[in-house]
Amino acid sequence: MLNQAHQEKLSSQHLPCLPRLSSFKSHKIASNALPFLPPIRISSMGEPRSCRLWLLVLVFARWYHASIAMTFTISNYCPHPIWPGTLAGAGTPQLSTTGFKLDPGQAVQLAAPAGWSGRIWARTGCVFDADGAGVCQTGDCGGRMECRGAGATPPATLFEVTLDGSGGLDFYDVSLVDGYNLPVVAIPRSRQGGACNATGCMADLNRSCPKELQVDCGGGAIACRSACEAFAQDRYCCSGPYATPDACHPTVYSSIFKSACPRAYSYAYDDRTSTFTCKASDYTIAFCLPTSGWTARAPTVATRRQFTTVAAPRRLTAVAMRRRRRCTITVVSNRRFTATAAEAPVNRP
Description:
This protein folds into two domains: about 25-65, no CATH class; about 70-345, Thaumatin. The chain contains eight helices and 17 strands. The protein is an alpha+beta fold. InterPro entries: Osmotin/thaumatin-like_sf (IPR037176), Thaumatin (IPR001938), Thaumatin_CS (IPR017949).
């Protein structure tokens, strides 16, 4: 039997990385830095390799935290399929998938690295062949299932985020600057136990979209364009002489968006009420989240095999592609808009 003093001496010699190891009882279970790893059993008579193992775990914990910042859970509450797309910002890698199909009631989880920035949106009315080539009525990204660095063709409702930005905070928003195609809500979960603000647009803007902004395929509006895209005028696009916050103000059209979706970006300089910050551990991005009056079952997380399955013709014909593209760009009114007093900029509140 070794007395306590001798055990303490051996502990200090063999395990310098674990101070005062003698205070541990023999075979004490150490607290684990990572909840998904099994507990490490450390003996007060441990060999130097035990110390190296513990250091390895700590290094791995630091690496894991730095490399995998959080998870996006993308959920489809819509009564029809959607095809989410993702686009990484400059200097950050693309996510593990940049485009996939989600049937009603399905959800997918995507891991994002620390410092990631980018956009997530949903496409609608898509048709893809077995090679992943096709077209979508709204939100198309280069005519492919996987967007591969291509952004959403307007109009599309966008979730935008920068992880671990200034002060270690995430910066996030839902934007209607490029128009609207589906309702979406972004719900962060705080890493610090406090509340983080959800944001988004739950209203069906397609129903209240002005005729001159509608994208219509014959059965009613399927998307609502921004005034910038529809009319290409500097004062709607906050460009040219209107390229500063002092010069570019809300218009009648952006005010329609803002009234329906107060937390979403309605025009380029709508920062004050539309950008949110949080230290989040994960985000839920829910399309067509049910509002009061009806309920829906929470989407089930799909496996990668499920959400990459494409039920489509072997190869789309040129006629089918042209027909779908024509529908994509058809609008109720494509005439050049002439501004009148009724469309004068609205003063800021």
